[in-house]
Amino acid sequence: MTDALGRPNSVLVLGGTSDIALATAKRLAERGARTIALLGRHPDAMLAAAGPLREAGATVHALPFDASDPVGCVAAVEEAFRTYGDFDVVLLAFGILGDQQRYEADPEAAARDSVVNFAATVGSGLAVARRLRAQGQGTLVVLSSVAGQRPRRELYVYGAAKSGVDAFSIGLNEALRGSGARVMVVRPGYVQTKMTAHLPLGPMAQTIDDVADGIMRGLDSGAAVVWCPPKLRLFFAVLRLLPQFVFRRLGSR
Amino acid sequence: MPEFTQTEQLTGWGRTAPTVAHVARPFTARQVSEALAEPLPRGAIARGLGRAYGDAAQNAGGLVLDCTGLDALGEISVDGIVTVGGGLSLDVLARAAIATGWFLPVTPGTRHITVGGAIASDVHGKNHHVDGSFSRYVRSLRLALPGGEVRELASNDSAEEGALFWATTGGMGLTGTVVEATLQLTPAETRFMLVDTDRAQNLDELMTMMSIGDDRYRYTVAWVDMVTRGRSMGRGVLTRGDHAPFAAIPERKLGGAREYAPRALIPAVPPIPAPLISRLNMRAFNELWFRKAPAHRVDEIQSIEAFFYPLDGIDRWNTAYGSRGFLQWQCVIPFGAEERLRAIIEAIVEGPVPATLVVLKRFGAASEGPLSFPIPGWTLAVDFPAVKSEQFATFLDALDLEVADAGGRLYLAKDSRMRAELMPVMYPRLDEWRAVQASIDPHDQLTSDLDRRLGITSRSARALGLRQESV
Which entry of A236, A240, B169, B421 is 20 to 30 Å from A4 by CA? Predict the structure, then answer.
């Protein structure tokens, strides 16, 4: 259960190697989350990397989860709830940034990664929602991206999937109204993570901790959408309205 | 799950941590037992008027039995014994009682709770130091158990039945649903009180006055200023009294001496903007409140509602805290650990969030209920806005540890944020209670959000991954 001061007891992470999810889980553990279950491809590796969560006082579990199998994801989510009981907060944080140039040369890779980024989110998101609805409470945090806000030439395969993830999450939140459960969409801008380590530093670059702090604020305030940093909200309100020829020029750095 | 349930979002009085449950509204004991006879995938808990501050009467995703339809009120016998439905409110009972020369044997600071809730929380009132808690006046009760059996229990029953009776008092609804209770009322000639008021200039003076003088009064309570620092820290206003006999009532009031018909004069409070609940404003409020009270006054005639239920004058005062809600932190510190109490009060005065309303009172002897809250000592109840900050959460956790270390405990009917680790420390008879609970609930059908959060039942403790002996 989550207490009166917004401190959850149990946390499920889908994509248990995500830097942002782990930083958020650590904060939740510091607040007193006792059970943290990490789902990802390599359970042993996740357990080995979960030292900070244990130091913060949580008991950490790991279960296999393969986002390239969007149907299997549903069973993996079910298994997590069956094994560990209710989860108060679920962080859906798996995804592949990919390389746009390579996608254009290798459409099969683009198709595979889009399954991970979109179809697996739909399957596991709905599986989580079904359980949260049954338990009458809980928050599903979905990591979207500003890349989904307006397609850019450099990142449109990833952006298209995130656009779908974003729309799916907002719709799912509507579907959960009145159930006690809710969905919170997180739209980070450029974040310095291992996902983006190979890229040059983007504008308004933020750290993993900035995003995790943003997620915590959103959990406390009950926000449906969290922008990281918050000023991106205004920025994109304008960006979305720009004519394509202006937007194109902004993109070519 | 029974038919005719409604999906509803529920919170406690503090309006924090909402969850959604399937709510059924039984009107008879039979309907309660039928509901409990069905398999309940996420368990069931009874709910009364929703005045527990935290999550005691919530059951996320499960069944909540709104028992307010069980509001039967029997005839009051010549010796003040009455049989009522578990969902009858103390308000309705008090009206009938006062009209015939009786009063509630124990009443908390609101009359809007049910008899079943009063038993499940083993509530106390201003007379605890003399008269004990609510359970002392329960002659017998009928308890609907998981599986559908309804059992008649009395405090003086032998072994098994008696153990279940006492486990039910203070058992937070986790041993079954009270569908009926037979109570012993207390004589009260009129609807008036004779009240003495005294101001104390600081905490030492207040505690001394209470230690020395309380025993001369049936009812006592102190309001404490917990914002003002320095020499006046912990100053307070002590109100003490007893029921007024006919002889003490002026002639013009004698006609209506038993006409008790209190009303809420104000329907609800608009939310007070959060920044206004600041230390500065609270200091001004406390100054006003302190100055308003007479330094010393004796034998003032007050109505029962003014003396016992000042906050019930506003129908829904809990809305004042706005959407973030509020919490009440109520502890008891055993006699002999006064220094700890003083340290806790000092910490709150200096703490990160200003206290809005504080009440101090002395408890008398404990009841036999293993989870009954009152033990001999000082009980301090502090209202705070539910500020979701790390600092505030950690601050309250530290206070909890102080309480546990002093051999005290928190009141489960008020709690909304305590850590599960402290449950077996504060309630050392928890295992004894769990044994009784398990005997009537072998399939783990009774649970609540409070139970899930604190691991009160064995099943919930296992789900939290707590070893029972762990601290």
Answer: B169
